[in-house]
Write a structure and sequence with these properties.
This protein is an alpha+beta fold. It folds into two domains: 2-66; 69-175, Head domain of nucleotide exchange factor GrpE (Nucleotide Exchange Factor Grpe, Chain A, domain 2), CATH 2.30.22. It has three helices and eight strands, in the order E-E-H-H-H-E-E-E-E-E-E. The strands form three sheets. A three-stranded antiparallel β-sheet has the order 3-6-7. The chain has a three-stranded mixed β-sheet with strand order 4-8-5, with no helix packed on it. A hairpin with a 2-residue loop joins strand 6 and strand 7 (164-167). The protein is elongated. The relative contact order is 0.10.
Length: 179
């Protein structure tokens, strides 16, 4: 009879011990002990190999999903610059529609590429609660009419790559309003 591991390869033949009423010689006892030691070492090596396979598979998945983190981080300032360019355009400048339209199309395309690769923009709004997992407080100021710990100004958007933070959103936070 052959025992098999989950991968289907034989572990070893059925182990046959001498009958219980027969006293084995010291040589047989030594061979049984050696056999048991080798079997134990084999089973440990098999478990180590399985653990290494699982670790390698996880590393491969992580590399596939998060391998572009550096490139993504390098593209974030491009997104910021395009966003600021659109925000800075006055109504008079918007009359030069071709330039503004070009910047809008470029930013839209960059957002499409981000979405295709699992990059999400974190866009907090004033009044939202500060979340240290997604936001970085750049300053804190007492602002009447606000709740302590709420966002009062957004300097830069944040970005997530799948479930990992690439860059926190840079925000100003309200402290306890001065009395």
């Amino acid at each position: 009879m052959t025992n098999e591991n989950p991968n289907g390869s034989p572990l070893d033949e059925e182990i046959i011990d001498p009958p219980a009423d027969e006293v084995p010689s010291p040589e047989v006892e030594a061979l049984i002990a050696e056999r048991d030691e080798y079997r134990d070492r084999f089973m440990r090596a098999l478990a180590d190999a399985e653990n290494a396979r699982k670790r390698a598979e996880k590393d491969r998945r992580d590399a596939e999903q998060y391998g572009g983190s550096r490139l993504a981080r390098d593209l974030l300032p491009v997104h910021d610059a395009l966003t600021r360019a659109l925000e800075a355009a006055s109504e008079d400048q918007r009359a030069a529609a071709a330039l503004i339209e070009g910047v809008e199309l470029t930013l839209r395309e960059l957002n499409n590429v981000f979405a295709k690769h699992g990059i999400k923009v974190i866009t907090p709004a004033p009044g939202e609660k500060f979340d240290p997992q997604q936001h970085e407080a750049m300053f804190e100021a007492p602002v009447p009419g606000t709740v302590a710990g709420s966002i009062i100004q957004v300097m830069d958007n944040g970005f997530m790559l799948h479930d990992r933070l690439l860059r926190p959103a840079k925000v100003g936070v309200s402290s306890t309003p001065a009395s």
